[in-house]
Design goal:
21% of the residues lie in helices and 44% in strands. The protein is of the alpha+beta class.
Length: 174
């Protein structure tokens, strides 16, 4: 059984993957690999989407995980480069780029340091893929290495909110 949002999903055929598709959004949770895959479409260019994802001043305008304000970003976008996000209230996220293809794909370790919240604390691998053209694009986030099925849900909710906030930021600023 998987709990997604307010729904419980049961599978009689014991398939390890549950796939839900909703207009402009899809979510995949693989129970065996303990990973989360979420995507969203945007009415903007890949270049604008990439900049909103990677530039400090833009990130500060839309990204607020757990309602925490982003204070500082260190983002050396190259293989082996460091990525550090510092928020208020003792939240720090850091990692290292494994792959960096501008406006196409970023793969990096995603390490959460949050002493008072065990569901969000952890070490993950994040793959962010940018697809599309000059009219419309899609962002896909794959987060891997969850320790349990239970730990996926808070991250799923966080990504849902973050991608909607990003969409509002990009599409509301026209």
């Amino acid at each position: 059984m998987l709990r997604i949002g307010g729904f419980q999903v049961f599978s009689k055929n014991l398939q390890p993957t549950v796939r839900l598709s909703v207009l402009f959004k899809s979510i995949v949770m693989n129970e065996q690999a303990q990973q989360l895959n979420i995507s969203k479409r945007f009415a903007t260019t890949r270049q604008n989407l990439f900049k909103a994802w990677t530039e400090e001043e833009q990130l500060k305008k839309w990204w607020k995980p757990m309602n925490k304000a982003l204070q500082h970003v260190e983002n050396d976008i190259r293989e082996g480069g460091r990525i550090v996000y510092t928020f208020n209230d003792n939240l720090n996220i850091h990692g290292e780029y494994k792959q960096a293809q501008e406006q196409e794909r970023l793969v990096y370790s995603w390490i959460w340091d949050l002493p008072e919240d065990s569901h969000h604390k952890g070490e993950y691998l994040l793959t962010v893929t940018f697809k599309g053209d000059e009219q419309e694009c899609e962002l896909e986030v794959l987060q891997q290495n969850f320790k349990s099925e239970h730990s996926i849900q808070p991250h799923h909710e966080g990504w849902e909110k973050a991608l909607q906030d990003l969409k509002n930021y990009l599409e509301g600023s026209k």
